[in-house]
């Protein structure tokens, strides 16, 4: 890790309650480049004692500090400062993303500058204030108010740590919560850079902490009774585990989990227009994103034609070093992830799907590479059609008519995202309404801080983004007031 690459002032320390402090243990977490398979840096590794310190600081700041007692407009000032610091550090965020995950730098450099927009958006909501509703009653009236939920633990995954941090930290701070961020041990750098931004913004003591820790001690943090709310993004299996831990003490939790999203290409689609919009969302970040459109539903009437066009488009994807300007797809993030994806590819072949391209490491001697892969003639019961692979593997299913396309799209344990490609926007909207998923786009895939993101079924509980993403960090309280006797002289 070099200062010219990341500019981290204290990579060997933890950020607890606003202070950079040494951990109570001597161990560190190694950061491994997925492109070279070499150790490129180390950060401090938090212990359970460090977690206790962070929880105590967050609890004290919430119960006795100024943060939850500031007005929304006062908190918005700090959020806007954080956004400005994030804009100043945008290239550090981009380089950290590429270094740890292998995302092409040309892409991370485009995305990272927009992440401060989440803080700006929630600053705007906070400035509007949190409406109090007065409800007339026979015996007086009630005031319904919204208050911050309390101490929040934000657990973020390795694939898109900055985006998932922003989706949790910004609304939680806007609501008046204190926050402990727990990044994935594979990708801790963005959280540490964000901590520097928070410190530079002058956020009060105890309001924000970052704990870089392995998974084996993270349960200790989630089990703490002083923690009021857990916000988690990651796999469905991990989400089930966290939900069970929270249920044991009836703690609040929201879960943004996996997906197996479908892209429906209607028979009237213009392939020349659709494919450039489809492929970036079918395998974004080498397919390592929850909203990847990994099931491609093609009409029987144009099946062979569309398959040929897809193969040609996928063959045009340049797999390579994430730091090279021409690279369109980098490696997978970890060795275990590469093994998982190659295992699904082998299973797909064994179950009878037809491999049209990819399926190997792309010829690279080192690095966790998997070439973009396309399977045709996939049946709905096959594992590659049902399970989240989290890699650059697309499964093509054939449908006879619109009703079958909708049925195939809905034939999933998940329900996170989806797309419909058709020049007929009215038809596309009707199909979108029929697909059971939390987010669906027509002729593209869009995400915006002002719009809620989340899923149906095993894709999670709750929403991130929009006013809905703020509400999950608030509690609702009803205050009953009696009829006031008229004043008499």
Brief overview:
The protein has 489 residues and is an alpha/beta fold. Helix content is 38%, strand content 19%. The N terminus is likely disordered.
Residue ranges: pLDDT <50 for 5 or more in a row?
A: 1-5
Tally of extended strands?
20
- Quickly name the level 1 CATH class of the largest domain: Alpha Beta
Radius of gyration (Å):
24 Å
Biggest sheet record: 7 strands, mixed
The CATH architecture name of the largest domain reads 3-Layer(aba) Sandwich
Q: What class, by secondary structure content?
A: alpha/beta
CATH superfamily annotation of the largest domain: Aldehyde Dehydrogenase, Chain A, domain 1
CATH topology of the largest domain: Aldehyde Dehydrogenase, Chain A, domain 1
Strand residue content: 15-25%
Oligomeric form of this entry?
single chain
Tally of helical runs: 17
Provide an overview of this structure:
The protein is an alpha/beta fold. It has 2 domains: 3-257 and 455-477, Aldehyde Dehydrogenase, Chain A, domain 1, CATH 3.40.605.10; 262-442, Aldehyde Dehydrogenase, Chain A, domain 2 (3-Layer(aba) Sandwich), CATH 3.40.309. 38% of the residues lie in helices and 19% in strands. It has helices spanning 3-6, 48-64, 72-88, 90-101, 105-111, 117-128, 161-175, 189-200, 218-222, 236-248, 271-282, 303-315, 335-350, 383-386, 402-410, 425-434, 466-471, and strands at 14-16, 19-21, 28-32, 39-44, 133-137, 140-148, 151-155, 178-182, 208-210, 229-233, 252-256, 262-265, 295-299, 354-357, 373-376, 393-399, 418-421, 441-442, 460-461, 474-482. The strands form 5 sheets. Strands 14-15-16-13-12-17-18 form a 7-stranded mixed sheet, with helices on both faces. Helix 7 links the parallel strand 7 and strand 8 (178-182). Helix 6 runs parallel beside helix 7 and helix 11 (271-282) packs across helix 12 (303-315). The longest helix is centred in the first third of the chain and has 17 residues, at 48-64.
